[in-house]
Amino acid sequence: MFLAFLNGRCRFISIFKWELGFLFLLSAIGGRVTGHIRYSIPEELKIGSVIGNVAKDLGLDASRLHMGRARIVSGGNIQYTELKADKGTLVMNERIDREQLCGDLTPCSLSFEIILENPMELHQVTVEILDINDNTPFFPNPVIQFETSESATVGSKYPIESAVDPDVGLNALQNYILSPNNYFVLKQHTNPDGSKYAELVLQRPLDREEQPSLLLKVIAADGGTPQRSGTVNINVLVLDANDNAPAFNQSVYRATITENSHKGTYVATVNATDADVGANGEIMFCFSKIKGSAVGAFNIDESTGVISVAGDIDHEKEKKYELRLEARDRGGLTGTSTIVIDVSDVNDNAPVITIMSYSSAVSEDSSVDTTIAIINVRDADSEKNGQVTCVIEESLPFKIVSSLTSYYNLVSDSSFDRELIAEYKIIIIAKDSGSPPLSSSVILNVKISDINDNQPLFEKHFYSAYVMENNAPGTSITTVRAKDADWKQNAKISYFLVDTHIGGTPASHYVSVNSETGELNAVRSFDYETLKEVELTIKAQDGGSPPLSSNVTVKIQIQDQNDNPPQVLYPVQTAGSVVAEMVPRSADVGYLVTKVVAVDVDSGQNAWLSYKLQKATDRALFEVGSQNGEIRTVRQVTEKDLLKQRLTVIVEDNGQPSRSATVIVNVAVADSFPEVLSEFTDFPHDKDYNDNLTFYLVLALAVVSFLFITLVIISVKIYRWRQSRILYHSSLPVIPYYPPRYSDTLGTGTLPHTYNYEVCRTTDSRKSDCKFGRAGSQNVLIMDPSSTGTMQRLQSEKSILDEPDSPLETSLWPSPYRDQTKHSIHRAENRQRHFSGERENRQREALRRCDSVQLQL
């Protein structure tokens, strides 16, 4: 406590800091700590005066108030205090007049709250306003005049209008003092509310003739320091005999009225009696000492004493009225009484909701019991009508929890998922317990902010696509799509090709993916014969932090296109030689001549082959199996049939459009080799060259041919030179000796079967070339230009030897040469006879081996 002198007067001011101490209460919401501070200050304190150090009293750092944006929240229109957040002090913002603020209500206090954020804290502050003796007692009327009869008995009482002192406690009105006189003494009384009033009591009889009037002075003094006082002059007129004063039949009247009652509503009736008669017995009723909100609130009929409502009655402003009644007769005598009017509350005020603090956005990963808003709810009604409950819809993941009196916290009650509900519309309803109940509501919109908690999901678990071979680079294959349930950047999806290898080659060499649209495009042209399918992995990744992703497998199947013509494996078409199939003239209908073997590297129906006989020397003699390519005789072979038969077979696939290949089959209709050899020397050679040979192959063949011809010419020169040396330049014709090509075992009728196969492939299947060597059987004749002359010489030698006049029979031919030539011719004839027996078996064996080779390919 401290003493101060203000305006030249000594005032005793008490400041009770921390009068109730610093109370810490654990809030029931979110673990927040709240405090209650109480200060005591004198009224009329200067603006800027420090009330207390809030930060220190709350145990907080001064920076906490600044960082937490501390602020004062009060329900009044006038902000009497101010919070210096930087210093942590509470200072005066407006002068406080306790009498204006609280009237005669004690104790007088200001209550407000201090709210801090980050985290949210709520502290209650109560500032008690202590009264100082700054008001002098005064009488409403400076002069009081009343009349009394000279017949007034000793002890008659004359109430004096009470003095008014707005101060309270010791500073309020404490004592009345009457100036010295011979007739009256002053008696002081205390009302039920603690106020004091005085009455003049007649001490000795009055004598109008002796003294018709009296002038008295009454002093009203308070108990403050320094003491203040007020004075009123009382003029007493002594009247003629009226020695009975009116008297009320009750010392205290009680009545009850509901608030908001209409004007003229009946309240109560008071009664008083006067023993006098005539004019001295006529009583008039009136109110005395009306102040504050009671002024003009009620009306009393001066004749009947009926009290009725005259103004607005509001329970929230005044819960009880205590009025003094006077009954005065014509002679000036009065009687007094008191009426107490209780105002019953009516539920006429709906709760008022005030949002003190509010977060409009909450992260979806917020923990349970996160504070969303702090709400203040007040109801001006009292008792049951002022009891308020605050609720929200039960289905929402929020709850309302009471913190301090009339304060509620809106907190989360469960976890959030923005992908299910992105925004909540919270209707907070405050409802009182009146009848009927009144309610009010407020709407809060809380948005759930997104976090990256959902990975992209593809529309399919597996994608399958098809693309035709020989496609152009950049061809669109398919499009993969993924969706992300998150929002904005967290839902922005990019597509990537996972680094995998296909046959040792990175997948990016085959397919590319558009990172924004997910469209897959071919990087190169596909070849079905090389690569039939591509399996790769696409990753969809969102733009969150950290990013989430998922993978999907895409299988691209290459579809075949009929881009390869059939390839004939047998019979082999060679340049510079003629391949012929031999058919005996005794062949029956259906005799298997040979089989055209062909393949197509395409697949499906593009590889289904069919065979047709396009041209033939004699169409009535041969036919071709459309499915198996077998060439058989249609009729019995006769002597009239030509020895040389030329068949053109076309092999066609089933593609759209179809592709085909042509093969020429030479057939010799004969029973013996000499007959075939003699006729096939003039067989036309097939000079169909491969148009697809490159320049380098032609050049290489030309060089090799040149070297080979050069070597042959040199060999022939050397050979002729040696022959000329052996024959001693004889003019006789030289018959060359040809050693037998087969062993003597050939006489048994068997021939060795030797098959040579040569397979040549390139990386481009359309330029593949397959060559097969057919078994060397007796019915296949290969007519090389170099051997034609030899066979002709053999035939000519045989004819010479068979002729009776042949030079061999003479001595012109040397005997050794002649014998060797005959021996060679006889051997050739023996081989021919053995060939005819096994011809059919060897032909079938050769066809079977060709079929086996085809299947292996």
Automatic annotation (TrEMBL):
Signal peptide: none annotated. One of its GO terms (biological process) is anatomical structure morphogenesis. PANTHER family: CADHERIN-87A, PROTOCADHERIN 1 GAMMA 11 PRECURSOR-RELATED. The chain crosses the membrane at residues 693-716. It is a single-pass type I membrane protein. Potential calcium-dependent cell-adhesion protein. May be involved in the establishment and maintenance of specific neuronal connections in the brain. It comes from Oryzias latipes (Japanese rice fish). Keywords: Calcium, Cell adhesion, Cell membrane, Glycoprotein, Membrane, Repeat, Signal, Transmembrane, Transmembrane helix. GO terms for cellular component: plasma membrane. Residues 786-843 are annotated as: Disordered. This is Cadherin domain-containing protein. Residues 819-843 have a biased composition (Basic and acidic residues). The keyword tRNA processing does not apply. It is found in: Cell membrane. Its main location: membrane.
